[in-house]
Amino acid sequence: MRHFFALISVLCLGAALAACASPAPIAPGSAEWEVTLVDHSIRPAQLRVPANHLLSLTVKNEDPQAHTLYVLTRSYTSPWDETDRAAVMASLEVPAGASLLWQFTSPQAAGEYDVIAAPPLAEEGMVAVLLVVQPSEPLSP
Which SUPFAM superfamilies does the UniProt entry name for this protein (predicted)? Predict the structure, then answer.
C-alpha cells in the first residue's frame, strides 16, 4: 500500500511539473501581442487587432513605478472623470519591473479604442490605440 501512495505522489508531481513547463495553448480565435511600458509610454503606440477575438497581451513594465492600464470604449478626454470610469472595458495593474499576461476580448465593432495609463500619466501622453478591424482585414497595415 505504501508503494501505491508513493507511485501516486510521483505521478501527481510529474503532472504538476509538466503543466508548469509548457505554455497554455492559445484558443482558436485568439491573438497574442507584446506591449512594453517604458519612459512613461506604451509601445507600440498602436495595436491592430481583429474584432471579437480573445487578445493575449504580454505587458512588460520597464518603468520604476507601477502602472494601471485601461482600454476605453470611447476616446479619452482629460480630466479623468466618472464618464471615463464607466467606459472602461478592460484594465490591468502592472507592478514596476513585472511582466504580466493580460487577456480580454476585443470589441465587436471595428474602430479605434484608447488604451491609457491611469491619470495623470494619460495627460502626459501615456496613451496608445487599439485599432480593431474586421477579421477579414489584414492585421498588418
Answer: Cupredoxins (SSF49503)
Return the C-alpha cell found at 48: 491592430
The answer to whether 62 and 37 are in contact (CB under 8 A) is yes
Cis peptide bond N-terminal to 138, omega within 30: no
pLDDT at residue 84 above 80?
Answer: yes
Q: Are 26 and 55 in contact (CB under 8 A)?
A: no
Name every residue whose Cβ is closer than 8 Å to that of residue 128 and which is 6 or more positions away in sequence. 35, 42, 43, 44, 45, 46, 47, 114, 115, 116
Residue 77 dihedral angles phi and psi, to the nearest 5°: -125, 135
- Tell me the pLDDT band of 140, cut-offs 50, 70 and 90: low
Task: Locate the domains of the chain by residue range.
Answer: 29-133
Q: Which CATH class is domain 29-133?
A: mainly beta
Answer whether 117's CB lies under 8 Å from 42's CB. Answer: yes
* Whole-structure pTM value: 0.75
| Residue 104: Cβ within 10 Å count | 15
> In whole angstroms, what is the distance from residue 101 CA to residue 75 CA?
24
Averaged pLDDT, 31-48 = 93
The cell numbers describing 3, all together, are: 508503494
